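Researcher: I'm preparing a figure for a lab meeting and need a structural model of a single chain. I don't have an experimental structure, so a prediction will have to do for now. The sequence is pasted below. Please return the structure as tokens so I can convert it later.
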Amino acid sequence: MSPRSARYAPIESYAAIGDCHGAALVGRDGSIDWCALRRFDAPPVFLRLLDVERGGCWAIGPQAEFRAARRYLDGTNVLRTVFTTGDGEAALTDLMPVGRRLDAGTHDYVSLVAPGWLIRRVTGLRGRVRFALRYRPSADYARARPALRLERGALRGHGVPALYGAPECTIEGDVAATAFEIAAGETRDFVLAANTEAEHPPAARVDEFVAATRAFWTEWIGYCRYRGPHAELVRRSALALKLMTYAPTGALVAALTTSLPEALGGGRNWDYRFCWLRDSGFALYALAALGYGGEARRFHEFLAEACRQTLPDIHIMYGIRHEVELAEQELAHLDGYASSRPVRIGNGAYTQHQIDVYGEILDLAHLYQSLGGELGEQYRRLLGTFAAFVARHWNEPDQGLWEMRGPPRHHVHGKLMSWAALDRAAELLPDAARWRAAADEVRRSLLAEAVDPEGGHLRQAYDGGVDAAVLLAPLLGFALDESALARTVAVVERELARGDYLLRYAGDDGLEGGEGAFLACSFWLVDAKLALGRLAEARALFERLAACANDVGLYAEEIEPASGAFLGNFPQAFTHLGLVGSAVNLELFERHGVAAMRCSHAVRVRRMIGATFGWRGVLAALRTSGRLGRIRSSRASMLAWP
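Model: Understood. Here is the structure written out token by token.
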């Protein structure tokens, strides 16, 4: 890394906190270098992550040399960092309050706090530790430099939240700084509040916020039913996915950040703070398999509402409040992470045509119904519109799963998802024979055009290429000959593998520069090996991939194979979904063998839930509730949703 790049902390050095509305990234040194309050896609209050000079941060750390060790408090997204110096030891606890409290008068649950608060608590553990605090908020993506002032007990500035707990700060323009000492047994609290006119002094409520937030997360994760290997890592992935779910609508963002590069110094820097339909089937499968029907239902409802707005087309992504327009802009005034330019907000790929999204929606609906979810008549008509669109347009070229910006091609993954769309339509909709015949037409095309005539493996597109996405074929239930699948796995490993990591594809994609290995693809390789009956290979690869998480169990989008450094936006939902899916699939293989891999998501999740809860009990609970929901009622499923 160049000296200029070395000024930026490694992506893997961050941990995430959030309140199911917004989120922040905290470095090992105690610096918050990214923080978006109230909405994941809001202009960040701190964005040193994307410009070390202009971006601003909120740093709390020892003045002397220190060692840092950190972890999430058990079963929560509350982060605790312990700093050890030559003079003592102190803990920094970081959280964004979330939850509800019981009103003594009405005995109803009321909102604990409006979204957009961030608490930092410093506690002395041994001896004495002297800390330095530096606070520099940003406005409008650092295009404005708000002058700070001390007013009514808080540091305030135009267009930025209020910081309580540091009245002695020295202020110079948009920067406030102070130093303080913490002895064993002492505590000092700092509260950042987006709703700057707090009803009560924030310091007086920190104990309540901490207790309620811990209770919220521990109750929620208590419903996770996975008990297999690496259970803690699976639970951490579940907690990360919950953190990245926007509570008011149920949308799952692809990542918490924008423009973290796929290669240092390169231009493949995209905004991932939106909801991709490509994640939908993976998310519903992962959440339902772990026992979270409530989240799966809300995500399904979000997608249905978003898709209604763009009929007959479906966009590949939507905003977290169903926004359709996600115009892409470049912020030329920002340096970019490790000088990787440009920094982008919005994502121009939302206008791309990708036929696979229709299959993802119909596959999701199939899974939803198989779990007892009710598909109303209006929604079935919507699905019929999608199926008819696929039947008319499946044989046209598109941009493919990876949002390539070159000319359209006949991508094999898109054809596989077209087959899945029509196959699921035959299960869900009237006139099943019509949809089955259309699905058979797509299947014949795939067998004739998708298989390389010389190598006998699935290609990236009908005109050639190698792509890791075709590893998903057996997991869709597509009847691919075992020898063809084996040859496909062999070619993917030979052409795309960099050690345990896979590139997404080989060849030109219409963009300059390169990228790292895409972590989700390695988990797809685990699943493909299971579909071939290679349990030992699959389990060994999963074990090695599990060891690639950072020290608090989080993954980015990509990894640099030689160094293991994270690349791309962080934390990345797609990677965590891949991990959960492979963990569940390993368990299913142990119980049901290869047959459990070569079937639809719906069949696999029914087997998983049936094995965990007892299928008769599941069906009884679903019939009683009248909708897809959590098997046991839980306040935690609604605590973050005012």
